[in-house]
Give the backbone structure.
Amino acid sequence: MTLGYFVTGTGTDVGKTRVSCALLHAFGALGKTVAGMKPVAAGRENGKWRDVELLAAASSITAPYEQMNPYALLPPIAPHIAAEQSGVDIDIAVIRQAYLELRKIAEVVIVEGIGGFLVPLNDHQDSGDMARALGLPVILVVGMQLGCLNHALLTARAVRATGLPLAGWVANRIDPQMIAFEENVLALQYRLECPLLGVLPFERVPDIKRLSTFISLSDIVPGYR
Ligand SMILES: Nc1ncnc2c1ncn2[C@@H]1O[C@H](COP(=O)(O)OP(=O)(O)OP(=O)(O)O)[C@@H](O)[C@H]1O
Ligand SMILES: [Mg+2]
């Protein structure tokens, strides 16, 4: 069984953290020890990095902070700019090492990317290079809103260009007013050429455990049911 997944999205604020937490719960329900990882987080709120806190809360093991989040940057801006302003050089080898340490203590590691798939991390590498260095199958979170078809199809193409498999995608209903929601899901189901793992409803205050039941792992976990 694959021990990890890289969760990317159609952009920032589309539900990567929410889906990553739901995946952690779903794998946890299979009896696996699970850990979330946010290799690069940008934007401190009240002394904390929100995504890291949420992923830690959804993990079944407690990992050292620097393994879960090797790069914690203060400004809430694009990571390579935040790093530059902080005098930090994001090194993918450091991220890979932290990931390998997490793998020693968790059977499943869910790695949340930052922003969209091609967000730069430094002068010569982007988030896709990080996914490739980790060698993980990718799960694409589509924030269902007007414009998402193009963003989803571009992202799928970018993922496949790295040589990584697209393990599946999740439709996340972030806009409750979206017109022709079902038709848009169908349009992507037809074109993304990978399994739809779940459709998450709009829920302002999420019950992640309940949301995890909307995710089906049967298409990505060998021998599952
Ligand atoms: N299905 C949903 N229903 C209602 N609100 C949602 C849903 N999914 C996400 N949200 C809200 O949208 C915001 C962004 O979600 P989330 O933090 O999961 O996105 P993200 O892609 O991880 O963002 P980032 O790029 O900052 O990491 C959050 O406030 C979250 O609570
Ligand atoms: Mg997030």
Remarks:
- Strands lie at 4-9, 34-37, 40-42, 71-73, 108-112, 138-143, 166-172, 196-200.
- The CA atoms of residues 153 and 192 lie 7 Å apart.
